[in-house]
Amino acid sequence: MTAPDPFDPPLPVADLRAFLPGTWRIVREIDDRRAGQRHVMHGTGTFAPAPGDPTGLVYDEEVVWAPAGQTMTGTRRYLIAGLRRASAVVLFADGRPFHALDLADGACAVHHDCPPDTYTGEYRVLDTDRFTVRWTVTGARKDSVLFTTFTRMA
To answer: Does the global pTM surpass 0.85?
Structure first.
């Protein structure tokens, strides 16, 4: 998995509403340790104003990957709510809580319990046009590491 240099300090974010909006190129590397497989997904993610919520954002993602030579696609949607400077709450599309987010220091540890599995992650801002999200998923059903690099598209 490609990871940021641990000696490079993350870039603090003062305002998520200024940093996130726009379209981002996604490269997601998945190491499914249980299945002994690695996959790479490519796609885009877009942060846009949330309808009816002047302080919120909607995140929509579309990815493509080719496990075992078959082309597969995937989509997901998250709501970014309660934006206050560098912090927010990330919700699933149906409004259930996913995790808190605070990038004031440029990095944020995150956690989500999805019994019987646990998701432990970290957001890290590399510069004004790149950030990463790393999830380690462990439990009765999963044993995976997902590492996503987001690069702002011009």
So the answer is: yes
CATH of domain 16-152: 2.40.128.20
Whole-number Cα distances in Å, 2 to 38, 44, 48, 149 = 13, 18, 27, 9
Q: What whole-number distance in Å separates Cα of residue 145 and Cα of residue 45?
A: 20
> What residue segments make up the domains of the chain, in order of their start?
16-152
- pLDDT tens across the length of the chain (154 residues): 666 666 689 999 999 999 999 999 999 999 999 999 999 999 999 999 999 888 899 999 999 998 878 899 999 999 999 999 999 999 999 999 999 999 999 999 999 999 999 999 999 999 999 999 999 999 999 999 999 999 999 7
Cα–Cα distance for residue pair 27/64, rounded to 1 Å: 10
Q: Return the structure tokens found at 83.
A: 């934006």
Q: Give 149's strand partners.
A: 27, 132
